[in-house]
Structure prediction request, 188 residues.
Amino acid sequence: MDAAKAKEIIGSAESKIQKNVEHLETTLLGIRAGKANPALFNQVTVDYYGSQTSLPQVSSITSPDARTVLIQPWEKSMIQPVERAIMQANLGFTPQNNGETIRINIPPLTEERRKDLVKQARSEGENARISIRNVRRDAIESIKKLQKEGLSEDLVKDFESDVQKIIDNYNRMIDSILDKKEKEILAV
Prediction:
């Protein structure tokens, strides 16, 4: 009975860790790597008839070439609010409005800016690791409570070991994700 509870705790912990890693991947998409990527605008919100709506929900966002993003709102009346939202998001881009679409030229990154973006990516990775450590701590505390309820000490040690193996696996995954993003940012 208690072993089943411990496995449930471990399963729940792994699910939380997976969500942390997915959040890291989503966050890293928003860090530009010098080439045009429509995902840069996923976090931008627009005032759409009184409610804040994400930019991809009110417009088509495409990348016709490596240095340009083209945003075409579904409604022409949304051109000004979309342009304003991009400026307010402080992404470092100047939108160019031609009345029907918004064109954004992505400037090449300077070496200093690339290093700053790598630091930002590493910081996001560290935030993910901290979240994972918190999940590990909570899972191990819950398993130790089961020992007080009658779970054997050997089983507790085995379950703690299982939790640590999961943590190590996800930390390697985070390292891999960060290395890939770093290479993408530093590629000229």
